[in-house]
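fyi for ur records
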Amino acid sequence: MGLAIAPGRDVLLFDLAEFEPLRGLRHAVVPARKHPLNPVLEPGDNNDWDSAQASPWPVRTVLYDEQERLFKMWYGGCDAAPERNWKMGYAVSPDGVRWEKPRLGLFEHNGRRDNNIIHPVPYGAVVKDPSEPDPVRRYKMHLREFVRYSPDGIRWPADPPAPGNAPVDLRWTGPRAWDVVAFLRDDQDPDPARRFKLVFQYYDRADKPGPEQVRFKALCVGPDELRLRPASARPLLSPNDGFEHENHFLACVPYKGQYLLLYECGWYQPDGTGTFGRYLADIRLAHSRDGVQFRRLLPEQPLIRRGAPGEWDEQFLVIADKAVIKDGLIYLYYCGQGNDWASWPPGNAAPGLAVGPGCTSISRTGLATLPLDHFTCLGTADDASFGQATTRPLDWTGVTPARLTVNLSATRPRRDWAQVEALDAAGNILPGFTREECRPLCEDALAAPVRWSGGDALPCRPFRLRFHLFGAARLHSFALK
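which gave:
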């Protein structure tokens, strides 16, 4: 028996569980492409409530509303006052790039209401729940101890005991829980008792030089947003399991039957700044098949890199709690901080500072994108020569012959291309399915059909696939249909 492959299932290149050892190929993270119009959400002018910071950091969510065909962002912002006057704002965009801050008239700032403030408390993560029968509870904002509800995502109740909130039964017995990191409704999980998921952080002892206490992540799951229990006795993510000092925030992404964490990988660079050094962070990947036990995926390779020296996001990045997937593109929103965040975070600041780190520093929102399945790839070790990847035996579960499609990039005719051959379970090449009989795949596509000179229908019995890559061509996934 081989690995069962159902019709239409994408075989993703995360843990390579479907493959034998590679020959002449390397497994790599594909850096997300930063948008040329970054930062896509800037702070306001000097008199606005978000004149210093406007980013999905303490308020964590960007999503695409299918019903309204609109990108929506709930973000945290503050003005330049030393007392860190943070609030919650709301912005919308037709394309995810050009954002508008609507004048909602709900809250006053500097004697005016012509702003986009939607709540005076700037914490939480948001879900729009189309299955919610009560329209007043269509939008849910999790703050760990309670949930706020809104019919439109704009008008939210004041904190408890005001009506419109509900207490959370969080059966957490570990160290004191702190910030909400991610909140999602997971419709791909087959267990309805795990439909809603909340990630929050808590402090525990570090295992390397630097701060004594660092942030660990916990995952709680439940049938709804109010009844949540720990998914595991182990941390979801701990900096003690990696080289880094901190995993501040992350995005939790259910993806085609598997799970990714896009986590903030932070470390202190000992340049004489602050108590431990300058805090630097980019965004890296962790992967799971079950959504509970995660392992770092190629942890030496960033998914979203820090900016170059002098750029607006050169020091550290913080990612929003969700990825947006629309029209074959993955949108990753992050907040970027420049070199003015010298002694961040607060525990890194010298004692007795009149103004705490981050209070008057600038934070902006950026966008990075990837085509579908382009989180990782297989490619030649030198982007020039050749190599091959052979699957373990695949057991096709369809009732008709399988047809193969591949997700390829960086191709060029007669220079950078791919070919595929099919083998039986024992490793013998099937007649009619040799590499030489495969038409060269030399065009970038999310689902390029693979054809041999004798046709494209693979046998209805266990078989292997061998992918030959030439030059700089990259393989991101494949599917049988």
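The radius of gyration is 24 Å. thats all i got for now
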